[in-house]
């Protein structure tokens, strides 16, 4: 079945919310059976210092898992969507440590990146989610 951007965004969020590798693999298998390619990546550190690493890791993971091909437009779509999702979190996270996961989902020309992060200062934690969508022709 072919889904639109809303469904693919929801899948990316579900991948970002997985708590264990086993859960991540089960979701990945389930979505694969529906024709949706997915990947999830753990991330964390001081927010500003890790933005570049998170973007790089998202592109590398998407290529490694076959979500995107190693071509400029697809790599750029993932990098751009990841930066957009991270920018939505920035007002809460700037200057603080973050930890969590990002999820990427793709079907045909729809690709979404969701970032789910815990934002911490001592024991006072906040959570935030960022989401972005791109199309790949």
UniProtKB/TrEMBL annotation:
Pfam families tied to this protein: HutP (PF09021)
UniProt keyword S-adenosyl-L-methionine, yes or no: no
GO molecular function list: RNA binding
InterPro entries, sorted: Regulatory_HutP (IPR015111), Regulatory_HutP_sf (IPR036482)
Gene3D superfamilies found in the cross-reference section: Hut operon regulatory protein HutP
Function description: Antiterminator that binds to cis-acting regulatory sequences on the mRNA in the presence of histidine, thereby suppressing transcription termination and activating the hut operon for histidine utilization.
Subunit relationships: Homohexamer.
Family: Belongs to the HutP family.
Protein name in UniProt: Hut operon positive regulatory protein
Originating organism: Desulfonispora thiosulfatigenes DSM 11270
């Amino acid at each position: 079945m072919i889904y639109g951007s809303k469904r693919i965004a929801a899948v990316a969020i579900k991948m970002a919310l997985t708590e264990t590798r086993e859960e991540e693999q089960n979701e990945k298998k389930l979505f694969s059976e529906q024709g949706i390619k997915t990947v999830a990546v753990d991330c964390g550190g001081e927010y500003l210092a890790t933005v570049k690493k998170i973007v790089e890791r998202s592109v590398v993971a998407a290529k490694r898992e076959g979500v995107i091909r190693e071509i400029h437009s697809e790599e750029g779509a993932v990098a751009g969507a990841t930066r957009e999702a991270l920018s939505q979190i920035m007002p809460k996270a700037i200057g603080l440590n973050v930890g969590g996961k990002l999820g990427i989902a793709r079907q045909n020309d729809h690709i979404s990146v969701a970032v789910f992060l815990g934002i911490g200062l001592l024991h006072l934690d906040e959570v935030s989610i960022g989401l972005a969508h791109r199309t790949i022709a």
